[in-house]
Amino acid sequence: MLIKKLLFSILVLQINEVLSKRNCNDCQLLTTCNEAMDLNRFKQDHDTRKLFLNAFCGWETDDDEMRPKVCCSDFQPLFKPPLDLTNDSAARLLPKKCGTILSSRLLGGQRSFPNQYSWTALIAYKTRDGPQFQCGGSVINSKYILTAAHCVLDKEIEGVRVGEYDTTTDRDCDYSPLYSCADHVQDFHVVTLIPHEKYDKSTHLNDIALLRLGGEINFNNTYIEPICLPTSAALRSKDLDKTSGVVAGWGYTERGQEYAVLQHREMHLITNAECSNLFNRYKHDPINQFCAGNLNENSCIGDSGGPIIIENDYNGTYRYVQYGISSFGPVSCGNHFPAVFTDVRKYVDWILDHIRE
């Protein structure tokens, strides 16, 4: 259990019963004190153990399980509050028109309609059988695609396609409520690969990358638009627990393609504590990552490297904002296991440091 793992020092109290309980005004369950949970995950030295012992203030019984309580005010935030990057000099390279939510139809089944998720990108690779799409990404401005580092390293990228909807047709048309057709897709070669310099293949940490295109995306095409990024302090500090996001894609991975037409699905975000419990057998602790998935449903909708988006207030209007990048997940579909996403909020400054005019 995660609780037992977290209480590496407090369990001594139960065994020896030699330390007295603290009295404080904010005695609460350890798992509800974010500052204590962060400290326990990232620091386990002697001073940290001592701090936990001194902060112990009792137990709470839940379903015959003893849950520790601590004086939460004893713990200081381990991380600095996120900075507002909307006025960063590089932020001006991110278009203000982004993440448009089309309200004409509500999210229903799995099949989307043309230009509903107009920032989706496909990455093609050189293979023995010719160019093959194997990863996805998102358009963040006219020159850059945001994707995962595992989609970039040790790969021969053929190019990037934007504006796609139905991979079996040359032109995508929508017949309801009015007949309309998308302009042709736009294909680009890639001039610069920018994987995160600290990407760790074994732990999937820092699984984020940028692709600089050899040309500029034409946004006059109504079927192509960039996604919004969480540059403001409010968006970067948003509590994602018990929220829902949307993934859209064709199910592209290194193993092949699931769908010909762009699909979408709502996915429930899972708390870090629950995510750690689920991955405990793999000794994986999601740092700068989060889990999402409907554990009783098939989850193979999005593309590897593709985005998970959440509706948010963005400069006074409701927009889709990209909060995650598909990093890794179940090997097979429908195995009641969540997918893990790189937390884009933790990398906005990295993105802004690496994009150019």
UniProtKB/TrEMBL annotation:
PROSITE patterns: TRYPSIN_DOM, TRYPSIN_HIS, TRYPSIN_SER. Residues 106-356 form the Peptidase S1 domain. The keyword Signal applies. Coiled coil: none annotated. Residues 1-20 form the signal peptide. The keyword Signal applies. Keywords: Disulfide bond, Glycoprotein, Hydrolase, Protease, Serine protease, Signal. Belongs to the peptidase S1 family. CLIP subfamily. This is Peptidase S1 domain-containing protein. It comes from Pieris macdunnoughi.
